[in-house]
Amino acid sequence: MLRTLIVDDEPLARQEMRRLLSAHPDLEIVGEAETAAEAVSAIERLHPQLVFLDIDLGFGNGFDVLAALPEPPVVVFVTAYAEYAVEAFAVDAVDYLLKPVDPARLAESLTRVRRQLAVAESARNGATVIELKTPKRSLLVPPDEIVALRAEDDFTRVFVADQSSVLIWRTLGHFESRLPSPPFQRLSRSLIINRDRLKDIESVSRSATRIRLEGLVEPLLLGRTAATRLRDVLANEGRPVSP
């Protein structure tokens, strides 16, 4: 069960969140809090894994709560104010829900929460994870869920399986030094792929090759040099290579 705390200064809002969360039987609501001080006390006493946290709490706010905790739990902000989203993700909130909360959007948020908790647990057990930190959010991702990485000026766009890509203010070389090779293969100055996720290779012209990778909807286009390098690597591994 996912131990959950609801923090909101409006009783009706807490009641509505309870109603919405009742559709998710793997959640256990261990308590509620109305003020920032009550929230800090409840978190220290109840040790929830997940907190649905309002921003405007009358006396104090949700950011005060997180600042008072040395190791805050996973947080999803729930608020009527869209303008705090950047600040919320800057403190590593997993998600940001606007009131009135849409049930489908809540389900999506809980999927993110469960995944983040699972990755964090793997990291505590010694598994390798890669932190993808942006101005809006931080993701902990197992290397095998990274499909490809592409340099974009001083940034790197990281393609994570079945998720939106993430633009990170790090060079491609930074990731190349941290990712295992194999399966990660640098094909050019601007592209690294996870060879374990390669599905097929298709020549579209003398100078262009299209590759499809598991976890990406759209294929990637390779130039002649990158395609040749990929074919050479696969041939050396004894893997079949399409013409």
TrEMBL record:
GO terms for biological process: regulation of DNA-templated transcription. The modification 4-aspartylphosphate is found at D54. SUPFAM superfamilies: CheY-like. Residues 130-236 form the HTH LytTR-type domain. Keywords: DNA-binding, Phosphoprotein. Gene3D superfamilies: 3.40.50.2300, LytTr DNA-binding domain (2.40.50.1020). This is Two component transcriptional regulator, LytTR family.
